[in-house]
Amino acid sequence: MQQNRNALIAAAIIMAVFALLAFYLPDIMMTAADFSPVAAGAVVVVFLLGFFALFWLRGRHQNRKH
Fold it and tell me: 10 in the Ramachandran plot: left (φ > 0), alpha (ψ -120 to 50) or beta?
């Protein structure tokens, strides 16, 4: 029971952080676009890959514990 609650809390924190980043993503993209359009695209790619990579790594870590 405690492990499920910890997993839920960790997932909620991760989702909240990414939701906050997603809220500011257009502003971050526009700032990066001042340097180059490729930089703006790279910001989006890093954001999306980071989201999935974090949960993938967390899943691998959880599987090693069992």
Answer: alpha
